[in-house]
Design brief:
- The chain is an all-alpha fold.
- It has two domains: 10-190, MFS general substrate transporter like domains (Growth Hormone, Chain: A, Up-down Bundle), CATH 1.20.1250.20; 208-393, Up-down Bundle (Growth Hormone, Chain: A).
- It is 81% helix and 0% strand.
- GO terms for molecular function: transmembrane transporter activity.
Protein backbone atom coordinates (compact mmCIF):
# COMPACT_ATOMS: atom_id res chain seq x y z
CA UNK A 1 0.00 0.00 0.00
CA UNK A 2 1.32 3.45 -0.93
CA UNK A 3 1.31 5.87 1.98
CA UNK A 4 0.26 9.45 1.45
CA UNK A 5 3.23 11.80 1.47
CA UNK A 6 3.26 14.17 4.45
CA UNK A 7 5.23 17.40 3.97
CA UNK A 8 8.33 18.13 6.02
CA UNK A 9 7.89 20.34 9.06
CA UNK A 10 11.38 21.87 9.17
CA UNK A 11 10.63 25.04 7.13
CA UNK A 12 7.64 25.90 9.31
CA UNK A 13 9.53 25.19 12.55
CA UNK A 14 12.46 27.31 11.38
CA UNK A 15 10.10 30.16 10.50
CA UNK A 16 8.45 29.80 13.92
CA UNK A 17 11.87 30.11 15.54
CA UNK A 18 12.61 33.30 13.58
CA UNK A 19 9.20 34.70 14.52
CA UNK A 20 9.74 33.88 18.22
CA UNK A 21 13.20 35.42 18.09
CA UNK A 22 12.08 38.69 16.53
CA UNK A 23 8.98 38.89 18.74
CA UNK A 24 11.21 38.72 21.83
CA UNK A 25 13.49 41.33 20.25
CA UNK A 26 10.63 43.73 19.63
CA UNK A 27 9.23 43.23 23.15
CA UNK A 28 12.53 44.40 24.62
CA UNK A 29 12.78 47.30 22.19
CA UNK A 30 9.22 48.43 23.00
CA UNK A 31 9.90 48.32 26.76
CA UNK A 32 13.14 50.28 26.39
CA UNK A 33 11.41 52.82 24.12
CA UNK A 34 8.64 53.34 26.68
CA UNK A 35 11.13 53.67 29.54
CA UNK A 36 13.40 56.11 27.68
CA UNK A 37 10.70 58.46 26.44
CA UNK A 38 9.53 59.72 29.80
CA UNK A 39 6.80 57.16 30.47
CA UNK A 40 8.64 55.39 33.30
CA UNK A 41 7.95 52.13 35.10
CA UNK A 42 4.19 52.58 34.84
CA UNK A 43 4.44 52.42 31.05
CA UNK A 44 6.48 49.21 31.09
CA UNK A 45 4.04 47.73 33.59
CA UNK A 46 1.11 48.76 31.36
CA UNK A 47 2.66 46.98 28.38
CA UNK A 48 3.10 43.78 30.39
CA UNK A 49 -0.44 44.08 31.75
CA UNK A 50 -1.91 44.59 28.26
CA UNK A 51 -0.04 41.48 27.14
CA UNK A 52 -1.55 39.43 29.97
CA UNK A 53 -5.07 40.81 29.52
CA UNK A 54 -5.02 39.98 25.82
CA UNK A 55 -3.91 36.39 26.52
CA UNK A 56 -6.51 35.82 29.23
CA UNK A 57 -9.54 37.83 28.12
CA UNK A 58 -9.34 38.53 24.38
CA UNK A 59 -7.88 35.33 22.94
CA UNK A 60 -10.85 33.19 24.14
CA UNK A 61 -13.17 35.60 22.30
CA UNK A 62 -11.42 35.08 18.96
CA UNK A 63 -10.85 31.30 19.07
CA UNK A 64 -14.22 30.62 17.36
CA UNK A 65 -12.39 31.70 14.19
CA UNK A 66 -11.15 28.07 14.06
CA UNK A 67 -14.77 26.97 13.52
CA UNK A 68 -14.95 28.80 10.21
CA UNK A 69 -11.37 28.75 8.93
CA UNK A 70 -8.69 26.09 8.62
CA UNK A 71 -5.62 26.43 10.90
CA UNK A 72 -3.54 27.45 7.88
CA UNK A 73 -5.91 30.27 7.00
CA UNK A 74 -6.06 31.40 10.65
CA UNK A 75 -2.25 31.53 10.84
CA UNK A 76 -2.02 33.48 7.57
CA UNK A 77 -4.67 35.94 8.78
CA UNK A 78 -2.76 36.43 12.06
CA UNK A 79 0.42 37.11 10.09
CA UNK A 80 -1.30 39.79 8.00
CA UNK A 81 -2.75 41.47 11.11
CA UNK A 82 0.69 41.37 12.76
CA UNK A 83 2.24 43.05 9.72
CA UNK A 84 -0.39 45.78 9.80
CA UNK A 85 0.14 46.47 13.52
CA UNK A 86 3.93 46.54 13.11
CA UNK A 87 3.58 48.97 10.19
CA UNK A 88 1.42 51.18 12.42
CA UNK A 89 4.22 51.29 15.01
CA UNK A 90 6.66 52.38 12.32
CA UNK A 91 4.31 55.13 11.12
CA UNK A 92 3.16 56.34 14.57
CA UNK A 93 5.72 55.31 17.22
CA UNK A 94 3.79 56.72 20.19
CA UNK A 95 3.01 55.10 23.53
CA UNK A 96 -0.78 54.71 22.94
CA UNK A 97 -0.05 53.03 19.60
CA UNK A 98 2.43 50.70 21.32
CA UNK A 99 -0.24 49.68 23.83
CA UNK A 100 -2.82 49.00 21.13
CA UNK A 101 -0.36 47.04 19.02
CA UNK A 102 0.78 45.05 22.06
CA UNK A 103 -2.81 43.95 22.59
CA UNK A 104 -3.17 43.08 18.91
CA UNK A 105 0.10 41.16 18.83
CA UNK A 106 -0.71 39.16 21.96
CA UNK A 107 -4.15 38.30 20.62
CA UNK A 108 -2.87 37.12 17.25
CA UNK A 109 -0.13 35.11 18.99
CA UNK A 110 -2.87 33.36 20.94
CA UNK A 111 -4.31 31.92 17.74
CA UNK A 112 -1.14 31.75 15.64
CA UNK A 113 0.71 29.44 18.05
CA UNK A 114 -2.10 26.86 18.41
CA UNK A 115 -2.63 26.88 14.64
CA UNK A 116 1.05 26.16 13.97
CA UNK A 117 1.23 23.43 16.61
CA UNK A 118 -1.78 21.73 15.03
CA UNK A 119 -0.39 22.13 11.50
CA UNK A 120 2.94 20.57 12.51
CA UNK A 121 1.10 17.60 14.04
CA UNK A 122 -0.62 17.13 10.67
CA UNK A 123 2.51 17.63 8.57
CA UNK A 124 4.98 15.21 10.20
CA UNK A 125 6.30 12.23 8.22
CA UNK A 126 4.79 9.79 10.74
CA UNK A 127 1.62 9.59 12.75
CA UNK A 128 0.85 8.67 16.35
CA UNK A 129 1.59 10.15 19.75
CA UNK A 130 5.36 9.78 19.44
CA UNK A 131 5.28 11.78 16.19
CA UNK A 132 3.06 14.42 17.83
CA UNK A 133 5.40 14.68 20.81
CA UNK A 134 8.40 15.06 18.52
CA UNK A 135 6.73 17.84 16.52
CA UNK A 136 5.59 19.65 19.65
CA UNK A 137 9.06 19.30 21.19
CA UNK A 138 10.72 20.83 18.12
CA UNK A 139 8.29 23.76 18.21
CA UNK A 140 8.86 24.22 21.95
CA UNK A 141 12.61 24.23 21.34
CA UNK A 142 12.22 26.83 18.59
CA UNK A 143 10.01 29.02 20.79
CA UNK A 144 12.25 28.77 23.85
CA UNK A 145 15.47 29.30 21.90
CA UNK A 146 14.00 32.36 20.21
CA UNK A 147 12.86 33.71 23.57
CA UNK A 148 16.29 33.02 25.08
CA UNK A 149 18.46 34.87 22.57
CA UNK A 150 15.91 37.37 21.24
CA UNK A 151 16.04 39.90 24.11
CA UNK A 152 19.81 40.37 23.81
CA UNK A 153 19.58 40.93 20.07
CA UNK A 154 16.62 43.27 20.58
CA UNK A 155 18.60 45.40 23.00
CA UNK A 156 21.51 45.57 20.56
CA UNK A 157 19.24 46.52 17.66
CA UNK A 158 17.64 49.27 19.73
CA UNK A 159 21.08 50.65 20.48
CA UNK A 160 21.99 50.56 16.78
CA UNK A 161 18.82 51.77 15.10
CA UNK A 162 16.14 52.44 17.68
CA UNK A 163 12.66 50.97 17.75
CA UNK A 164 12.28 51.18 13.98
CA UNK A 165 15.08 48.70 13.28
CA UNK A 166 13.69 46.11 15.69
CA UNK A 167 10.15 46.47 14.31
CA UNK A 168 11.37 46.29 10.70
CA UNK A 169 13.26 43.10 11.52
CA UNK A 170 10.11 41.54 12.98
CA UNK A 171 8.13 42.58 9.91
CA UNK A 172 10.63 40.74 7.72
CA UNK A 173 10.37 37.64 9.95
CA UNK A 174 6.56 37.78 9.89
CA UNK A 175 6.65 37.95 6.10
CA UNK A 176 8.89 34.86 6.02
CA UNK A 177 6.48 33.07 8.34
CA UNK A 178 3.54 33.93 6.09
CA UNK A 179 5.37 32.68 2.99
CA UNK A 180 6.25 29.40 4.72
CA UNK A 181 2.63 28.95 5.76
CA UNK A 182 1.40 29.67 2.25
CA UNK A 183 3.87 27.26 0.62
CA UNK A 184 4.27 24.41 3.10
CA UNK A 185 1.23 24.26 5.41
CA UNK A 186 -1.66 21.95 4.45
CA UNK A 187 -5.10 23.45 3.97
CA UNK A 188 -7.51 21.13 5.73
CA UNK A 189 -11.08 21.77 6.80
CA UNK A 190 -12.29 24.05 9.61
CA UNK A 191 -13.73 22.60 12.79
CA UNK A 192 -17.25 23.64 11.72
CA UNK A 193 -17.11 21.05 8.97
CA UNK A 194 -17.42 18.31 11.58
CA UNK A 195 -18.23 19.87 14.95
CA UNK A 196 -20.85 22.32 16.05
CA UNK A 197 -21.53 24.32 12.91
CA UNK A 198 -24.89 25.46 14.41
CA UNK A 199 -23.53 26.30 17.87
CA UNK A 200 -24.03 29.72 19.39
CA UNK A 201 -21.10 32.08 19.77
CA UNK A 202 -20.88 31.39 23.53
CA UNK A 203 -20.97 27.64 22.92
CA UNK A 204 -18.13 27.93 20.42
CA UNK A 205 -16.08 29.92 22.94
CA UNK A 206 -16.67 27.39 25.71
CA UNK A 207 -16.44 24.24 23.56
CA UNK A 208 -12.76 23.47 24.18
CA UNK A 209 -12.74 24.40 27.91
CA UNK A 210 -15.87 22.29 28.42
CA UNK A 211 -14.35 19.24 26.74
CA UNK A 212 -11.11 19.62 28.66
CA UNK A 213 -12.89 19.94 32.01
CA UNK A 214 -15.11 16.95 31.28
CA UNK A 215 -12.11 14.72 30.63
CA UNK A 216 -10.55 13.47 33.92
CA UNK A 217 -7.00 13.33 32.51
CA UNK A 218 -6.93 16.87 31.13
CA UNK A 219 -8.78 18.26 34.16
CA UNK A 220 -6.25 16.87 36.62
CA UNK A 221 -3.35 17.77 34.32
CA UNK A 222 -4.47 21.39 34.37
CA UNK A 223 -4.76 21.28 38.16
CA UNK A 224 -1.17 20.05 38.45
CA UNK A 225 0.30 22.51 35.96
CA UNK A 226 -1.74 25.44 37.30
CA UNK A 227 -0.35 24.81 40.78
CA UNK A 228 3.19 24.64 39.42
CA UNK A 229 2.78 27.84 37.37
CA UNK A 230 1.34 29.84 40.27
CA UNK A 231 4.12 28.87 42.66
CA UNK A 232 6.93 29.14 40.11
CA UNK A 233 5.66 32.62 39.25
CA UNK A 234 6.18 33.53 42.91
CA UNK A 235 9.75 32.27 42.57
CA UNK A 236 10.20 34.41 39.44
CA UNK A 237 9.33 37.51 41.47
CA UNK A 238 11.68 36.44 44.28
CA UNK A 239 14.62 35.55 42.02
CA UNK A 240 16.08 39.03 41.55
CA UNK A 241 15.92 39.72 45.30
CA UNK A 242 17.39 36.29 46.02
CA UNK A 243 20.35 37.05 43.75
CA UNK A 244 20.94 40.60 44.97
CA UNK A 245 20.08 40.38 48.68
CA UNK A 246 20.44 36.75 49.75
CA UNK A 247 23.45 35.77 47.63
CA UNK A 248 24.91 39.31 47.77
CA UNK A 249 25.63 39.09 44.05
CA UNK A 250 25.06 41.43 41.10
CA UNK A 251 23.06 41.64 37.92
CA UNK A 252 25.25 39.11 36.11
CA UNK A 253 24.46 36.48 38.76
CA UNK A 254 20.75 37.19 38.38
CA UNK A 255 21.08 36.72 34.62
CA UNK A 256 22.95 33.42 35.11
CA UNK A 257 20.26 32.10 37.46
CA UNK A 258 17.55 33.08 34.99
CA UNK A 259 19.40 31.49 32.08
CA UNK A 260 19.99 28.26 34.07
CA UNK A 261 16.21 27.76 34.25
CA UNK A 262 15.79 28.63 30.56
CA UNK A 263 18.57 26.27 29.44
CA UNK A 264 16.94 23.55 31.51
CA UNK A 265 13.65 24.21 29.71
CA UNK A 266 15.43 23.92 26.37
CA UNK A 267 16.93 20.56 27.27
CA UNK A 268 13.59 19.43 28.67
CA UNK A 269 11.87 20.26 25.40
CA UNK A 270 14.30 18.00 23.54
CA UNK A 271 13.85 15.16 26.02
CA UNK A 272 10.07 15.53 25.76
CA UNK A 273 10.20 14.42 22.12
CA UNK A 274 10.29 10.82 23.43
CA UNK A 275 7.14 11.29 25.48
CA UNK A 276 3.91 9.40 24.82
CA UNK A 277 0.43 9.58 26.33
CA UNK A 278 0.93 6.55 28.55
CA UNK A 279 3.73 8.31 30.44
CA UNK A 280 2.30 11.85 30.40
CA UNK A 281 0.65 11.45 33.81
CA UNK A 282 3.85 10.28 35.45
CA UNK A 283 5.85 13.08 33.84
CA UNK A 284 3.35 15.63 35.16
CA UNK A 285 3.53 14.19 38.66
CA UNK A 286 7.25 13.48 38.83
CA UNK A 287 8.11 16.78 37.19
CA UNK A 288 6.00 18.78 39.65
CA UNK A 289 7.40 17.04 42.73
CA UNK A 290 11.05 17.20 41.59
CA UNK A 291 10.69 20.84 40.54
CA UNK A 292 9.14 21.69 43.90
CA UNK A 293 11.95 19.95 45.78
CA UNK A 294 14.55 21.76 43.64
CA UNK A 295 13.05 25.16 44.44
CA UNK A 296 12.79 24.19 48.10
CA UNK A 297 16.49 23.26 48.12
CA UNK A 298 17.41 26.61 46.52
CA UNK A 299 15.67 28.45 49.36
CA UNK A 300 17.30 26.35 52.06
CA UNK A 301 20.75 26.05 50.49
CA UNK A 302 21.35 29.71 49.56
CA UNK A 303 24.44 28.75 47.57
CA UNK A 304 25.16 30.14 44.09
CA UNK A 305 26.57 27.00 42.43
CA UNK A 306 23.88 24.75 43.92
CA UNK A 307 21.16 27.25 42.93
CA UNK A 308 22.31 27.24 39.31
CA UNK A 309 22.24 23.43 39.17
CA UNK A 310 18.87 23.20 40.94
CA UNK A 311 17.23 25.81 38.71
CA UNK A 312 18.56 23.94 35.69
CA UNK A 313 16.82 20.79 36.98
CA UNK A 314 13.65 22.78 37.69
CA UNK A 315 13.68 24.06 34.11
CA UNK A 316 13.88 20.52 32.73
CA UNK A 317 10.92 19.49 34.89
CA UNK A 318 8.91 22.55 33.88
CA UNK A 319 9.39 21.87 30.19
CA UNK A 320 8.49 18.20 30.63
CA UNK A 321 5.28 19.18 32.39
CA UNK A 322 4.25 21.58 29.62
CA UNK A 323 4.92 18.91 26.96
CA UNK A 324 2.97 16.31 28.93
CA UNK A 325 0.08 18.76 29.34
CA UNK A 326 0.02 19.45 25.60
CA UNK A 327 -0.10 15.72 24.78
CA UNK A 328 -2.88 15.24 27.34
CA UNK A 329 -4.85 18.14 25.87
CA UNK A 330 -4.31 16.76 22.35
CA UNK A 331 -5.75 13.36 23.32
CA UNK A 332 -8.70 14.79 25.26
CA UNK A 333 -10.50 16.52 22.36
CA UNK A 334 -11.40 15.76 18.73
CA UNK A 335 -8.67 16.57 16.20
CA UNK A 336 -10.68 19.48 14.76
CA UNK A 337 -10.96 21.13 18.18
CA UNK A 338 -7.26 20.84 19.06
CA UNK A 339 -6.28 24.37 17.94
CA UNK A 340 -8.98 25.79 20.23
CA UNK A 341 -7.83 23.47 23.04
CA UNK A 342 -4.21 24.60 22.62
CA UNK A 343 -5.40 28.21 22.76
CA UNK A 344 -7.33 27.42 25.96
CA UNK A 345 -4.15 25.92 27.38
CA UNK A 346 -2.23 29.12 26.68
CA UNK A 347 -4.92 31.39 28.17
CA UNK A 348 -5.30 29.36 31.36
CA UNK A 349 -1.54 29.15 31.82
CA UNK A 350 -1.30 32.93 31.42
CA UNK A 351 -4.04 33.38 34.02
CA UNK A 352 -2.17 31.15 36.49
CA UNK A 353 1.03 33.10 35.84
CA UNK A 354 -0.74 36.40 36.49
CA UNK A 355 -2.08 35.08 39.81
CA UNK A 356 1.42 33.99 40.79
CA UNK A 357 2.90 37.38 39.91
CA UNK A 358 0.17 39.15 41.91
CA UNK A 359 0.97 36.99 44.94
CA UNK A 360 4.72 37.18 44.45
CA UNK A 361 5.22 40.76 45.65
CA UNK A 362 3.39 40.41 49.00
CA UNK A 363 4.98 36.99 49.63
CA UNK A 364 8.51 38.32 49.06
CA UNK A 365 7.82 41.38 51.21
CA UNK A 366 6.44 39.27 54.07
CA UNK A 367 8.75 36.23 53.98
CA UNK A 368 11.88 37.38 52.17
CA UNK A 369 13.29 36.01 48.92
CA UNK A 370 14.78 32.78 50.28
CA UNK A 371 11.64 31.84 52.20
CA UNK A 372 9.57 32.67 49.11
CA UNK A 373 11.60 29.97 47.32
CA UNK A 374 10.80 27.55 50.14
CA UNK A 375 7.08 28.36 49.91
CA UNK A 376 7.19 28.05 46.11
CA UNK A 377 8.83 24.64 46.30
CA UNK A 378 6.58 23.31 49.07
CA UNK A 379 3.44 24.51 47.33
CA UNK A 380 4.43 23.04 43.96
CA UNK A 381 5.38 19.63 45.37
CA UNK A 382 2.49 19.36 47.83
CA UNK A 383 -0.31 20.33 45.44
CA UNK A 384 1.15 18.14 42.70
CA UNK A 385 1.06 15.17 45.10
CA UNK A 386 -2.50 15.95 46.21
CA UNK A 387 -3.91 16.32 42.69
CA UNK A 388 -1.95 13.30 41.42
CA UNK A 389 -3.35 10.91 44.02
CA UNK A 390 -6.64 10.63 42.15
CA UNK A 391 -5.18 11.31 38.69
CA UNK A 392 -2.83 8.31 38.77
CA UNK A 393 -5.58 5.91 39.83
CA UNK A 394 -8.02 6.93 37.08
CA UNK A 395 -8.84 4.35 34.42
CA UNK A 396 -6.81 5.48 31.39
CA UNK A 397 -8.99 3.70 28.83
CA UNK A 398 -11.70 6.34 29.07
CA UNK A 399 -9.49 9.40 28.91
CA UNK A 400 -8.64 9.66 25.19
CA UNK A 401 -11.06 11.02 22.67
CA UNK A 402 -12.14 8.38 20.10
CA UNK A 403 -10.08 8.70 16.94
CA UNK A 404 -6.89 9.74 18.71
CA UNK A 405 -3.84 7.71 17.57
CA UNK A 406 -3.73 5.89 20.92
CA UNK A 407 -7.45 5.26 21.13
CA UNK A 408 -8.65 1.80 20.21
CA UNK A 409 -12.22 2.82 19.60
Amino acid sequence: MIEKHRPATSPLILAYFVASLTSAMTAVAVSVFAARHGHGAAAVSSILLCNAIANIALVPLVVPIFDGWSPRRVALFASVVDLASLALILILPSFPVLLVCTVIGSTTAGIMGPAIYHLVSLMGPDSGEHAEAKGYARLDTARLLGGLIGPGIGGALFQLGGLGLAVSTEMAATTIMGCCLAVFAPGGRPATAEHGGQQSFISRITQAPRLLLQNPASRHAFQIVWSAIIFTSIYNVALVFFALDTLRAGGITFAVLTQAFMVGRLLGARVASRLDGQHAARVLTTGGIVMGLALLAVGFGRNLSASIALLFVAGICNSGQVSALRLTVSSAVPAAVRPKAFSTMGSTNSAAMLIGYALGGPVVNCLGAANAFVLSGCGTAALTAVFSARYLTTDRSSLRFPGHPCSHE
